UniProtKB/TrEMBL annotation:
Pfam families (UniProt xref): Amino_oxidase
InterPro entries (alphabetical): Amino_oxidase, FAD/NAD-bd_sf, Zeta_carotene_desat/Oxidored
One function term, GO molecular function aspect: oxidoreductase activity
Domain Amine oxidase as annotated: residue spans: 13-427
Record protein name field: Protoporphyrinogen oxidase
Length: 434
């Protein structure tokens, strides 16, 4: 029996995982990636004789899908499980913020508010009310149960760091799931949270997937932007800037905005649904420093006057010796395409950031900066609004044989390495069953 020829548009973790699952079953798979390197949001770049992720990255101990895949690919030994130090910058002070003792020392909250925060967090880590939390915003729920002070000092800054002025539209199901999954990542024998990172970056996983796909006969075309997908009687035509191809089925893993641009003859109902799906973008600056900015790995910024929402000091998690003694700091910023900070030059953005880095560490000097790297993506974080499951897109589109598997299919969990892999497995399973 001749098996279908399948194209996958997008060489991120979802596309690579789907390709891997399909070539294992003997399908003829071709992956098209518009960038010069594989990986999408999980891509890496050369840095100090090793690789570094373009966007800060770690996995949780509860991340079953990435762990199982690494075991299957015989690269599990590359995962390092390490304790991490979390913190919060609030009212001009850095506070450790990883366990109950840290909470007791957190001065911006009164004792009563600390109790409210602790109890609501503990509750959310241990209940599953997905359907109920779809019908209420995170702001509404937190104001009701945690109170105004807890919301304003903790949860509102987190929401605004991800969704800006539209923070009050985000459903509680999004925030609940982040808290729920974070609780599962706690080591039962220790107060500190253990997180995972791959020795040599998550590029190790990407490279292994590429290697196995190609060994099993799959093809990967880099620097190949897909321009058109059109259904004809005898299959699906796919056109890049240089060539035309014919496939039996196609999986598209990019944004719905991009999909609408290239997929022809979609139904009006499908187009209307897709137009309701919204993203925030991201701009992530990486600093290579001579000195450490702080001793915290993950620092949330609750001061709303700051132009960024978080500092992830990678070398407070992974030894700086892996990077020739340099300190690596990611500055997290989720933005909309119309935002000023999304559109200005890298140098302008850095100059805006520097005074705020001095607030985090008064000794910080711009001379500490050896180099900097600026990465951005228009499509980084889906907007999960109330009653999202009612219009959440499925894999099938209105065109026979054409499927979409992207961030909007990941629900109620937030997007990330683990769920990108699960999504790739799920869409491959869907095709195998049909």
């Amino acid at each position: 029996m001749v098996k279908d020829k399948i194209a996958i548009v997008g060489g991120g973790l979802t596309g690579l995982t789907a390709g891997y699952e399909l070539v294992k079953q003997g399908y003829e798979v071709t992956i098209f990636e518009q960038e010069r390197k594989i990986g999408g949001l999980a891509s890496v770049f050369d840095f100090e004789g090793t690789k570094l992720d373009k966007y800060y990255r770690h996995i949780f101990m509860s991340d079953k899908y990435v762990v199982d895949l690494c075991k299957e690919l015989d690269i599990y030994d590359k995962i390092m499980w390490l304790s991490s130090k979390m913190g919060t910058y609030s009212e001009g002070t850095i506070y450790p913020f990883g366990n109950p003792i840290d909470l007791l020392k957190f001065k911006p909250l009164s004792f009563i508010d600390k109790i409210k925060f602790g109890l609501t967090t503990l509750y959310l880590q241990n209940v599953n009310k997905e359907k109920e939390y779809e019908k209420i915003t995170a702001e509404e729920w937190m104001l009701k149960y945690a109170g105004e002070k807890v919301f304003n000092k903790i949860w509102k800054p987190l929401l605004t760091s991800k969704f800006g002025s539209r923070y009050n539209e985000i459903a509680m199901v999004w925030l609940w799931n982040k808290i729920f999954l974070r609780g599962k990542s706690k080591d039962s024998q220790a107060a500190n949270e253990k997180l995972g990172y791959m020795e040599g970056s998550f590029g190790v996983l990407l490279d292994k997937l590429v290697s196995v796909i190609e060994e099993k006969g799959g093809r990967i075309h880099l620097n190949s932007k897909v321009k058109d997908i059109l259904r004809e009687k005898n299959g699906l035509n796919l056109s890049t800037e240089k060539n035309q191809y014919k496939f039996d089925r196609i999986i598209f893993t990019g944004s719905h905005d991009s999909f609408l641009d290239i997929a022809h003859k979609l139904s009006l109902n499908y187009k209307d649904m897709a137009k309701n799906l919204e993203y925030t973008g991201t701009r992530c600056m990486i600093l290579k420093l001579k000195e450490a900015l702080s001793d915290i790995y993950w620092m949330n910024i609750t001061d709303q006057s700051f132009p960024f929402g978080g500092i992830i000091e990678h070398t407070n998690f992974i030894s700086k010796e892996q990077y020739n003694g340099n300190h690596i700091v990611y500055i997290s910023n989720y933005l909309y395409p119309q935002d000023k900070l999304y559109n200005i030059s890298s140098k302008e953005l850095l100059n805006i950031y520097i005074p705020y880095l001095k607030k985090i560490n008064p000794n910080f000097d711009k001379d500490w900066i050896i180099d900097y790297y600026d990465n951005k993506s228009r499509f980084a974080q889906p907007m999960i609004v109330k009653n999202y499951s009612e219009f959440r897109p499925g894999f099938k589109t209105s065109i026979e044989g054409l499927y979409v598997a992207n961030m909007f299919n990941i629900y109620p969990e937030d997007r990330g390495v683990n769920y990108a892999i699960r999504l790739g497995k799920d869409i491959a399973k869907k095709l195998l069953e049909e």
